[in-house]
Design goal:
This protein is mostly helical. 79% of the residues lie in helices and 0% in strands. It is built from eight helices and no strands. It has helices at residues 2-55, 62-76, 82-103, 107-111, 113-148, 152-158, 171-174, 179-182. The longest helix is centred in the first third of the chain and has 54 residues, at 2-55.
Length: 185
């Protein structure tokens, strides 16, 4: 009887340990995603100022500016889940890259002090977003490993924990920069 109680106690401790580990990893993913979301919110708050400062210079890039404004509005709607936020961030990052490339065609804008300040702030936010993405991806990888590896996969299945998506780089940002053409413009 005593041996049975010891074995039952050890099994109970293992189950509690696995449960707590899974909950800890799930909460860590949510916590880091909230930090990433805060940095993304900063970027969304910066965008109206950036768009306003470039609008008068960039008449020909109106579609890009309107798309950025539309994506920002969608992001601030507050009804996006983590997958939708990740997808929206990819679109917005791509549009911002296009905007910064288009700025090269407007020398007056490039010399504007307000624009330079906004561009510097945006670059700083992009660095913070990049760091937050790395932390999020590491935490999601730990979480995904925990819910898929033996023996915690049984507990995760019982808890209905599902795999989470990591941030990935849009395919257009994976292309190598053509340095030769960059300096010929």
């Amino acid at each position: 009887m005593e041996t049975f109680l010891v074995v039952a106690g050890v099994i109970l401790l293992i189950i509690v340990f696995m449960y707590n580990t899974l909950i800890s990893k799930k909460n860590q993913v949510e916590n880091i995603f909230a930090g990433l979301d805060a940095v993304l919110k900063k970027r969304y708050d910066l965008l109206p100022n950036l768009v306003a400062s470039v609008k008068e210079y960039m008449v020909h890039e109106r579609a890009t500016l309107e798309k950025i404004t539309e994506l920002r509005s969608k992001a601030l709607n507050g009804s996006l889940d983590s997958r939708e936020t990740i997808a929206l961030d990819k679109q917005l990052s791509s549009m911002l890259s296009n905007l910064m490339v288009a700025v090269e065609n407007y020398p007056t804008l490039k010399a504007n002090e307000n624009f330079l300040h906004l561009q510097g702030t945006l670059n700083e936010l992009e660095e913070q977003i990049s760091a937050a993405r790395r932390a999020y991806n590491q935490s999601v990888t730990d979480y995904n490993n925990a819910i898929e590896m033996f023996p915690t996969n049984f507990m995760a299945s019982a808890m209905k924990l599902v795999r989470k998506e990591v941030f990935s780089i849009p395919s257009n940002e994976r292309a190598n920069v053509d340095v030769k053409n960059l300096f010929q413009k």
